[in-house]
Structures are given as structure tokens and as C-alpha cells.
Specification:
The structure is a single chain. This protein is mainly α. Helices cover 71% and strands 0% of the residues. It is built from five helices and no strands. The longest helix is centred in the N-terminal third of the chain and has 42 residues. The protein is elongated.
Length: 219
């Protein structure tokens, strides 16, 4: 009777090796997973953190917004001052000659000097955002149109009486166009004030309609 023996020795290493590889494989997988987690976390942190370019862009935009806000405040102050100068001129030029006494040539010449000074703030305008530039350009257009109306009126009151009526009507039409241009500029100026946080700033001419919002609201 043969003695019971175990498995041949050449079979034992293979089986033991498989058993030993299982925990090694598990440890390796765990190590790889941990490393991947570390790498993923680092990548996520790097991706979420603004780089130098993004920070620089943010700083530029912040500085631009601050500069534009200052320009809007200054432009609004200028517009209020100009409105007080332009309003009576446009009113006088458009006045009905049958119900009011026309302004004299000397008065018209004084208006010309007023309009020369009114144009000075626009001689060397700063560069702002598109919306602010549009508001400034529109105001300048209204000032220029008022100047043309004044020139036409001066011509009307200095020509022979027989020629005055058509020139006076032309001056009145130009004054109406100047008032319309001012209305457009005032609307744009009001909008940029709201957009920049200043709230509604109504720099409209007397009798001109607007949105009716309370002054300073909506910022």
C-alpha cells in the first residue's frame, strides 16, 4: 500500500504565487487610485484657481469700470451746466415772432460766444467705453447743431427785413433739430448712469419727456 503524499513540489510555487499576487494586486490598485486622487485634486485646484492672465484681465476690467464711472459723473455734470446755457437759446430761437420780441443781433453774437465755450469740453475727449463715448458724441452733436441754429438766427436778424422770415424759420428748424439731438443724448446719458450704478440722471431740456423714473433710482 502506497503512502499518501501531497501535491508534487513543482505545483506548489505556482499556486502560492497566485495567492500572494492577490494582495499585491489589491495594494497596487489602491496605490494607483490614491495617486490618481492626488493628481485629480491638484488638477482641479489648478483649474479652479485663476491664473496670472485671468487675474490681469480682471484687474483691467475693474480699472476700466472705475474710470468709466468717473467719466460718466463728469459728463453728467457738464451736461447739466450746458443745459442751463442752451435751453434759453433754443427757446428764444423757436419763439413765435408774432407773440414775442425777437432777440437782437447783439444777443445772437453773445449766443455765439456761449456756444464756443460750450464746445470746449469736447475738444479733447477722453477714451471711454462705447456707451459713454456715444453719450458724449451725442451731446457734442447737440451743441454743434445749436451753434448752427445760432448762426442762422444771426444771419436772419442782420439781412434786409424782406429776407428775414425764411431765414428765421430755418433757424427755428435747426433749433428744433438741436433739441431733438439733445433728447437722444440725454436718454443715452441716463442709461449709462443706470448701468454704472449712478441711478437715473435726467438731463433733459425743459418740457422734454423721459421715462419718469425717480432721480437717482435704478442704480
Amino acid at each position: 500500500m502506497s503512502r499518501r503524499t501531497g501535491k508534487p513540489s513543482y505545483l506548489l510555487p505556482a499556486a502560492d504565487a497566485r495567492r500572494r499576487r492577490v494582495p499585491r494586486l489589491a495594494a497596487t490598485i489602491a496605490a494607483v487610485g490614491f495617486a490618481a486622487a492626488l493628481v485629480g485634486g491638484a488638477v482641479g485646484y489648478t483649474a479652479g484657481r485663476p491664473d496670472g492672465t485671468e487675474s490681469a484681465i480682471a484687474d483691467i476690467r475693474k480699472a476700466e469700470a472705475h474710470r468709466d464711472s468717473q467719466q460718466i459723473v463728469e459728463l453728467t455734470t457738464t451736461a447739466r451746466r450746458l443745459r442751463e446755457q442752451i435751453q434759453p437759446i433754443l427757446t428764444a430761437i423757436q419763439a413765435d415772432p408774432s407773440t414775442s420780441r425777437p432777440a437782437s443781433a447783439e444777443q445772437a453774437r453773445q449766443w455765439q460766444q456761449t456756444m464756443v465755450r460750450a464746445a470746449e469740453p469736447f475738444a479733447d475727449p477722453p477714451s471711454g467705453t462705447t456707451a459713454t463715448n456715444v453719450a458724449r458724441t451725442a451731446l457734442r452733436g447737440a451743441v454743434d447743431q445749436t451753434s448752427l441754429a445760432v448762426d442762422a438766427y444771426l444771419l436772419a436778424v442782420t439781412v434786409p427785413p424782406a429776407q428775414r422770415a425764411p431765414l428765421a424759420k430755418l433757424a427755428a428748424r435747426q433749433a428744433a433739430q438741436a433739441a431733438a439731438a439733445w433728447s437722444v443724448a440725454a436718454t443715452q446719458l441716463d442709461q449709462v448712469n443706470v448701468d454704472s450704478g449712478q441711478g437715473h440722471q435726467h438731463v433733459y431740456l425743459e418740457g422734454d419727456s423721459h421715462d419718469g423714473a425717480q432721480e437717482g433710482s435704478g442704480g
